[in-house]
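Appendix B, Record 12. Input sequence as logged:
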Amino acid sequence: MPYKEYKPEKLYYSIGEVAEILGESTSLVRFWSDSFPEFVRPQRNKKGNRKFTPADVENLRIIHHLVKDQRMTLEGAAARMKVNKEGLDHRAEAVERLRGIKESLMEISQLLNSRF
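Logged structural output:
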């Protein structure tokens, strides 16, 4: 599932917003947040709800790319992130952009097909 358009404009994102950005369930975001404490450190508000920073969201996007797209285990994804975080940022960003391009091309194709 393609990522929702995301621009790090806010200071904090709710777990629901992060789930929507990733196209995943809130329970999976919560699980990844608990499984990757070195990379995802959400703050808690007075009610105890998680509030994710833009850096947390970026790390969750990388985790999503490794686990869902690359089909890595959680341990493998954590090891890869420790070794090469910078390169992963660029790969995850490239995959996201390519998904957006594919979506745009599919919309154009549907428009063309409906006219002929």
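The longest strand covers residues 50-52.
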